[in-house]
Design goal:
125 residues, mainly alpha, Arc Repressor Mutant, 6 helices, 61% helix, globular, DNA sulfur modification protein DndE, DNA_S_DndE, DndE_sf
Length: 125
């Protein structure tokens, strides 16, 4: 398991709240999965900045990943390998959080997510 508890910054929580309204997706964990995958698809490292865990939005790793939590862990580890990073627990956990926050920011900041259809178009482009 990469991380026991996933806790987001207040900024990420606010961004997810806006995405929930636009897409109609009610569960935080589902939007977080989309955000993680969107960020992992980028071919660059997320900016290595200290991340605040200052919101009250928290979920267990198993809630984040659902029945496929092992797949999400494997995706993050594979991404670390492709970026030439170590796959120790600390590194994988760090880049999981950095990618998650970056993905949320990208999905919210792009302005092209106006409905669930826009989110689905990301998966088939």
């Amino acid at each position: 398991m990469i991380i026991k508890q996933v806790r987001l910054s207040q900024q990420a929580k606010d961004q997810l709240s806006r995405l929930k309204g636009k897409t109609g997706i009610k569960n935080w964990n589902i939007l977080c999965r989309w955000a993680l995958c969107y960020s992992l698809a980028e071919k660059t490292l997320p900016t290595d900045i200290p991340l605040a865990s200052d919101s009250n939005l928290e979920m267990s790793w198993y809630t984040f990943g659902g029945e496929y939590y092992e797949v999400y862990e494997a995706l993050v580890k594979a991404w670390c390998i492709s970026m030439g990073l170590e796959t120790d627990d600390e590194t994988v956990s760090k880049y999981f959080r950095l990618n998650l926050e970056r993905g949320i920011s990208y999905l919210c900041g792009t302005g092209f997510i106006k409905s669930i259809d826009d989110l689905l178009h990301l998966a088939v482009k």
